[in-house]
Amino acid sequence: MTVTDNTSVTSTPEPRVLSVRRRGADRVFRGAVTFGGLSTFIVQALIAGFLLYRGAQLFADYGIDFITSEQWINAGDTPENGATYGVAAMLVGTIVTALIAVIVALPFVVGTSLFLEFYAPKRLRSILVSLLDLIAAIPSIVYGLWGYIVLVPQVSGWSKSLNEYLGWFPLFDVPIPIFDRSPLTAGLVLTLMILPIATSVTREVYSQTPRDQLSAAYALGGSRWGAIREVALPYGRSGLVGGMLLGMGRALGETVAVLLTLNLAFDINFRILASAGGNVASLIANNFGEAGPYELKALLAAGFVLFCTTLIVNLIASFIVRGAERKYA
Amino acid sequence: MSTSTTTPVSASITTTGATGAQSLASVGLHAWFGKRHVLADINLEFPARSVTGLIGPSGCGKSTYIRMLNRMHEFIDGAAMAGTVLLDGEDIYDPGVDPISIRRKVGMVFQKPNPFPAMSIGENVVAGLKLSGMKVPNKNDVIEDCLTRAGLWKEVKDRLKAAGGSLSGGQQQRLCIARALAITPSVLLMDEPCSALDPASTLRIEETIKELASDMTIVIVTHNMQQAARVSDYCAFFLADEHPGLIVENDRTEVIFTNPRDPRTLDYVSGRFG
Amino acid sequence: MTLIATPVDALPTQPWRRSTSSRLHNLGYGLISLGAAGIVTLISPLAGPLGFYLVFVVVRIALIVPLVARDSIAARDQIMAVVITAGFVTAFIPWASIVSTVVREGLEAFHSDYLFTDMKTTSATDALGEGGLLHAIVGSTIILVIASLIAIPLGIVAAVYVTEVKGRLTRFVRLMTMSMSGVPSIVAGLFIYSVVAAEFGFSALAGALALAVLMLPTVSRTAEEVLGLVPLELRQASYALGANQVGTTFKVVLPTVRSGLVTASVLGLARVAGETAPLIFTAFYSASFSASLTGGAIGSLPMYVFQNFKVGTAEAITRAWGGAFVLLVFISSLFVIARLLASRSRKKV
């Protein structure tokens, strides 16, 4: 019997390249599933494509003016007959209402997620988290209805007082003393709508605060708030930003809630207490019923602008959240 | 140092005034997690300015015990205890005592270095001051002093603004020691501080421990028996073999390692199990 | 082996628990704040339940302020505890108002035939005992069923791509799914309008397509989570027995998470059940009963609420609340079903 002498091995062989050729049913399966997986991409591409295609005439006729001019006059339907179409007022309105929503929601998102994660008794926490998921599913039409019937009178009263004491500040000034169905009302309804989703994202992030750092903070003599302030808040910052951006994305595209709580008017309006404004979505919903063929194209073009805006905001949000996850992985 | 006894020993424990080191003792200490009884009747004394090593196989409750000395045990859901811990003769579990005040006097260094990543090196050192509300006339003096005592000043004095996480493992642990020192504790608890580090960093930290012992009382949990032999004045041997964790033997380190009374101690220190 | 000394027994205690005196202390502060709030709201312009709540919180915080001098860390800790709890409660007040208003006003619209008649012969000002929302319920059901038939299989397939096939496009597919869940509902409606309804008019099918676009990402994301929970060993066991990927997926992996997939579908359904904007451009609205897929506009619960709101008479508004009530009950039931399924499947695994 020969004894193998390992010392005579002079070089290590290259690893073998293993390739798998899928056969028959698996090839079909993988192809079909890949196609299905791409369905989300295909649908979004189709959305962008069709809206652009159907609304293309607007960009051809107006160019960039479609986005920058604020007048939307549909009398006569076509530009030759005196109509003119511009979404600037609605874009500003979209941003104003979404900004109000984000600014007002921010402290409550932080407070609610901190409460759920660090202050709520354990048994209550899972009930409240489920409740929050349920609240996230309340339809926008219900928010709109409640906003119109219950919130508008309330906010009217508050706006009146706000205008009385702070009316010198341009933001709180009004041309005529009518306060119902203002950007503020719509913004507050949007606050309620984005709170659940932003809170659930942020709470998830806070729940992953590294336990050992919290222990270190407590071992140094920190109180519960001290540990939250020094450890949890810095840790959760990017998650919070991501959650708020996600909420903002939702607020940008909200239709019926805004339609019911904001008086549609086509002037760029920063006066949040005044009864005038609108966002792109509510413009489309409002004018669709009686739109002539040209205006229809204009509405589709506006829809394309809205689609692009929300897409950008959501992509930024997901990159921020993804970046936060990678940083702490 | 006495063997396990059931009589309280507060009469024999005294403070040393000027340097602030205090003595610590546990009397009849028990611990539970829910229904699981994990520590039974632990009686130990840690005289001021001594270094005591807690040794024993893993899982016998040493970490649980040490967390009862600075009231961190109660953070765990379902944790329960019995007995007392006396800091300079005062019961730290008395209902009138604020646990936060105890943690300012009894500091802790953890097994895995955990500097705060959102803070710079300098900010990490004084983080405890911010958290515990202690006011100091000059933060920079505190930073330099604590980093020097932790043996890290020379290496980081030019980059105090760098992020806390940018240091090596051994440096991070020394930063955590500096951070613990900044709130001027009179007792320092160390839970396997070197187990995640390389041998060079380990020796560095052991030197630091010996220097710190002149100002404070140190209790160190360690798996490394050679470390216990090098660093500690006294050793307590924990065991939890089908029973809740107990002290099998505690004595001066030389006795434990050369002439232990209990055969199980001899088996453990000679490496027959562990 | 005998021990050196037998350990002394003891009973477990938790001395750190908040003592009764400290709890009474807190209660006392709370009562003082309540009293102060009551007095202030009675004598000052700050009236109503909201004013009361505001004063309560402010006074409760003010009671802690004297502690700042003695122990500022503890004081700040207590103040923040009050602030954070108050923030949480404040956030829930509007939602409590929404639910209570919907229930209170919605039930007023109910009468014995409310669920079984349509609005074909009822006018805006007819008394509340006339008319009903049968057409809305039937229309919604048809639209949702068709939408589910489209979105659920497609969503599961997309999830299968990510967890089973794991091709090179996986990251891209996940990114697309996430961005698709941000598509505004009105855009989905406009899209289907421009593809289908512009040529062929309003129909239940168009409505279903629009809702399917919105359902797809939710179903896909939840299905992906559920499929990800299947342990690798299960798939490997199947391959080791000589199965191919098709067989493994359909006979081993998918059956294991069957109830999870149902949960994903139910959640996707709950997401779109209340959507109004997409239906404005696709299924629009009809006040009469219809059960046809392509035969023109059809009623639905969200549009029922919307149309009644637009009509604006007192009776119509109450009917709108009635529709909102049915909608909320429907969506809540879906959630309860999803939760029950989730907990049952967890017990099995």
Describe the structure in your own words.
The complex is a heterotrimer of chains A (329), B (274) and C (349). By secondary structure, chain A is an all-alpha fold. Chain A has a single domain, classed as MetI-like fold, CATH 1.10.3720.10. Chain A contains twelve helices and two strands. Chain A has helices spanning 24-37, 39-62, 65-68, 88-119, 122-136, 140-166, 183-207, 211-219, 224-252, 256-261, 280-288, 293-327, and strands at residues 72-73, 84-85. Chain A has a two-stranded antiparallel sheet. In chain B, the strands form two sheets. A six-stranded mixed beta sheet of chain B has the order 6-7-8-3-9-10, with helices on both faces. A four-stranded antiparallel beta sheet of chain B has the order 2-1-4-5, covered by helices on one side. Chain C has 14 helices and no strands. Helices cover 72% and strands 0% of the residues of chain C. Classes of the chains: A mainly alpha (329), B alpha/beta (274), C mainly alpha (349).
What does the secondary structure layout of this molecule look like, with pairings?
The complex is a heterotrimer of chains A (about 325), B (about 270) and C (about 350).
Chain A: H1 24-37, H2 39-62, H3 65-68, E1 72-73, E2 84-85, H4 88-119, H5 122-136, H6 140-166, H7 183-207, H8 211-219, H9 224-252, H10 256-261, H11 280-288, H12 293-327
Antiparallel strand pairs in A: 1-2
Chain B: E1 24-33, E2 36-46, E3 51-55, H1 62-69, E4 79-87, E5 90-91, H2 99-105, E6 106-109, H3 121-125, H4 127-132, H5 139-149, H6 153-156, H7 169-181, E7 187-191, H8 199-212, E8 217-221, H9 225-231, E9 234-239, E10 246-252, H10 253-258, H11 263-269
Parallel strand pairs in B: 3-8, 3-9, 6-7, 7-8
Antiparallel strand pairs in B: 1-2, 1-4, 4-5, 9-10
Helix pairs in contact in B: 5-7, 7-8
Chain C: H1 20-43, H2 48-62, H3 67-70, H4 72-108, H5 134-165, H6 170-180, H7 185-200, H8 204-228, H9 232-240, H10 245-256, H11 258-273, H12 277-282, H13 301-311, H14 314-348
Helix pairs in contact in C: 1-2, 4-14, 5-8, 5-11, 5-13, 6-8, 7-8, 8-11, 9-10, 11-14, 13-14
Descriptive keywords:
heterotrimer; A: 329 residues; mainly alpha; MetI-like fold; 1% strand; B: 274 residues; alpha/beta; Rossmann fold; six-stranded mixed beta sheet; four-stranded antiparallel beta sheet; 11 helices
